[in-house]
Amino acid sequence: xxxxxxxxxxxxxxxxxxxxxxxxxxxxxxxxxxxxxxxxxxxxxxxxxxxxxxxxxxxxxxxxxxxxxxxxxxxxxxxxxxxxxxxxxxxxxxxxxxxxxxxxxxxxxxxxxxxxxxxxxxxxxxxxxxxxxxxxxxxxxxxxxxxxxxxxxxxxxxxxxxxxxxxxxxxxxxxxxxxxxxxxxxxxxxxxxxxxxxxxxxxxxxxxxxxxxxxxxxxxxxxxxxxxxxxxxxxxxxxxxxxxxxxxxxxxxxxxxxxxxxxxxxxxxxxxxxxxxxxxxxxxxxxxxxxxxxxxxxxxxxxxxxxxxxxxxxxxxxxxxxxxxxxxxxxx
Length: 332
Prior knowledge:
This protein is α/β, with parallel strands linked by helices.
C-alpha cells in the first residue's frame, strides 16, 4: 500500500516560485520542522525547500491502516512531490533531495526506482541497510509495550552528540517532543518497513551525484556506513561532520547547509572566517556575538541578518544588538 505523505513548505511563497526545488526527508520519530527548520534557514534564499513527514509523524495523521514497504513509502513521497512540481509548472520535473536516516533510505529508494527524477542527492546519517530485522522487531515490541514516549530517553542518547542538548535546549526538546507526539502505529509501520530494507547490492545502479554525510559521533549510522554508500554509487562523494551525531541538520545546521549548497549548486555560504562557529556557545549567543562583531566592522548585510535570525534572534532583538553596538562605538 502506498501511504499518504504530507509536506511542509519551508520557503516563503513570495520567494520560492523561481528557485530550484530541494526535497528534504526526516528521521524516524522526528517531524519535518523539528529536524530541518534550522538548516533550512540557511537555504531558503536559494531553494524552494519542501519537507515531508512520515506516516503518523508531525502533521501526517492518522497512520495508515495497513503497513508499507520502503519502496511504497518512496512512491508516496514522489506522489506528493509530483503535485508540487506540477504546481510549479514542471510536470515530472527533476529535483534535488536530502534525507536523514530513514529519509536518506527513501532517497536511495527513489534513486533506484525512479532514475532521472532525482537530479542530485545528499544522504545524511543513513545507510543502504539500517539495523537488522531482529533489531527492528525488538524496537517494535518496545513501542507496542510503552508507546513512543517510552523511546525518549534512549533516543536522546542515540540522536545527540555530547553537549548538544545543553547548548541547544529548545532544538533538542523540540525533537524529543516530536517523538513523544508520534503515533505508535506510524512509528511501528516505519520500523517494519526498515526491517525489509537492504539495497547494498544495488548501489552500483545509482548514477547521479550523491553526497554521503556522516557524523563522527553517530552510533546509529557510523561513518563506515556512509563510506559504503559513497563508494558503492557511481558518482559518490563523502563528507564527515566532526562532533555530530545522528541528526546532523539540527545539530550543525549551518555546516549541513554549506555541504548541500556546495553539492547541489557548486557554491558555499558566504564565508565568515573572522567569526568562526564555536560549539561552546548556544546558537542564540553565537548569533549575538557574530552580529555584534560584523556591526563593529561595518559588515552587516541581509545575509548577516538571515544568519542572526537562523541562530534564534528575533528581528527586534537583532535591531537592539545593532543599536547597542552603535551606541558603544559612538561613546568609544
